[in-house]
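MODEL INPUT / OUTPUT PAIR
PAIR INDEX: 1
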Amino acid sequence: MVTNRKKICFLLCGQNATIGPDHWFSQMPEVGILADIEPVVVFDKPSADIIPEVWQNLAAEIFARLKAVDGFVVFHDVDNILYSSSAISFMLTNLTKPVIFTGGHYVSQSDRKLEVKANLINAVQAAGYQYSDVGLMFGNRLLRANQAVRSADESLNLFTASPSAVLGRIDFSIRLADKLITKNKGVTKLVADLNGNIEVLTLAPVINLRTLAKKVIDRDAIIIDASSYLNLPADVLFFLEKITNDLPVVIWSDKIRNQIILPKNLIIVSDITWPAAVTKLMWVLGQTKNISKIRELMAKDVAGEIIKT
């Protein structure tokens, strides 16, 4: 139970920021009852326009206030929220305060207003507990953000995750899953170097490898969504071995296994969501360009992103 009054930093990141914090709190006085709120506008354009520099600014704003507040709520448009929250989980290592992403579209319809209000109130409450995860609060569940995926339906639980990533549930109050939440100790570090010079593509029969060869000349890595494939096509394997040379290539797939001899620069990752894989690769490349080290870090559970089965 949260028994003492908390101070929560409320970070606006997306088109909702154009409304202004004063308007938010005048429409939702319950938030001010729950905690003392420090509003910060990080990005005031649609979240579809968010780029890695915005993630770095958001991480820096959180890091600068770690000692001053009890927790953080990031109000973010639904677009790109899985990428933003995953990136923050990697950039703030040994995090010692909760960072809760939530959102929705603040529009005139009363049912959508209620949805946004409920998400925000629940997120503020969740940010007042003592744990160390980057979470995602929508509907009646608190999820580990870097393991969440978009739900197939459009219910209030807009996102879903494996049972091991459900950090809490909401009935009449928030019930945290004590065995699953993270409780770090020590000093939080801001490791915000991101390398976005990567080629992102989805494997398909229509890929033009000649065009791709020109595009990757100046890239520092390639990441490929091969989730619909059981085996890598022979021409793609030839391309990866002959054209990319020492360029690290990450294959995202839970189906492709090492049943064949793969090029040495190929790194297969599974048990991680696509947004987490993309943002983690950018974070890893910010630390090193050594393929062996990249392979090691991509396999390591850095921020609770590895999905336990």
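PAIR INDEX: 2
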Amino acid sequence: MLKLSPTSVACFRSCPRQYRFRYVDHLGDEYGGPRPYFTMGNHVHDTLREFLTVVPLERRNMETISALLRKNWRRYRVGFRGPEDERRWAEKALRQLASFVADHDIRVRPYLVEASLEAEITRSLVLQVRIDRVDLEPDGTLHIIDYKTGNTPDSSDWTQLHLNALVLSRRVRYPVSRASFIYLSSGSVDTVAVGGSVLDQARWDLLLTARSIGAEKRFSPQPGAACRRCDFRPICPERARRRGQAEKAGAVVGEPAGSGLPEQPALALW
């Protein structure tokens, strides 16, 4: 039985070797490590979950969401280079939440929040998803919402939300009509309609990926933008090969630059 998720599907399509390291050899714990953007993203998601499910409507305001972020942030504080780096990431999180409170309907009562679901696509394939939020629309259809705390891309990749919709359509009685990314760093929202043809295409593309995974023998590296933040650079054969070529040519090979710090904060968290 092959179990896939939107993350593992994206990983295989981006680099089969990284997929092998993470999902076949299970080396994530050995080579992975805390990252400030993961810590910040987790705290933002946890804060929004509590804000929209636990906090009464009359107390949903900036003061409350700031207090929730402070509480969540103190639970774990990993991946930072020091106090000043941590402060900058915390301020970035607070700015994103302030934008959410100012620009979105904070009186909404979501149908689902942080829902982990799975569905059997075929007898040999299970799709597992985790959905940030689902709203039940007045017309009786579902709207899938995903929060993004990173940089806003030039165009949205809908693979994740289409797969989320595929699972949701098999687990609940309401049809899925829309899916949206809320890009918290810019405040922008990107929405797409979801219908039967979209779900059929998502299922077909998933089956093709599953078949490719099942037939894969070499899991060849696929160099690209994902290499910059890949946990498995120390053991990647492509990186070693390219380093060897550069050394033969007399070039100096440096490490990829680390992730840049967010801009100077405008809000005070602590």
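PAIR 2 NOTE: The longest helix spans residues 83-103.
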